[in-house]
Amino acid sequence: MQCQTIKMDKDCFFWAEECTFPGGQCRNVVEKCEGCNRTEEWPTGKYCASYPAPDKHWNLGMCNMATHIKLEEAGVQKALNPLKASKRMSGRR
Ligand code: SF4
User: Is 74 helix (H, G, I), strand (E, B) or coil?
Assistant: First the structure.
């Protein structure tokens, strides 16, 4: 369905006769989103094309969909699966 509030006529998962997202509309991007390719400018403000609540995605560290920050830059290490690492090591012997 298409949004009929702040992102007029944009296809949206949350629209069903009214906005079903908590709060009744998307939230604006936050300062940390500056530079991300997923930000969209609308007459009603700047919003994220992927998430209706950008602030929540920065609360626990880094937004996993951010295009402007690389994991290495952010100092976040990729999680290592110990089982896969063990198999990889056994293949090298
Ligand atoms: S993808 Fe993440 S960083 Fe980019 S605009 Fe959306 S919430 Fe912000």
Answer: helix
Tens digit of each residue's pLDDT (9 = 90 or more) over 16-55: 989 999 999 999 999 999 999 999 999 999 999 999 999 9
Characterise 45 by phi-psi region: left (phi > 0), alpha (psi -120 to 50), beta (else): left
- Identify the pLDDT of residue 75: 64
Judge if the beta carbon of residue 54 lies within 6 A of ligand 1: yes
Please state the atom number of ligand 1 nearest to the C-alpha of residue 39: 5
Cβ of 29 closer than 6 Å to ligand 1, yes or no, is yes
Return the beta strands (E) in the chain as ranges: 15-16, 18-19, 39-42, 45-48
Domain residue extents for the chain: 29-91
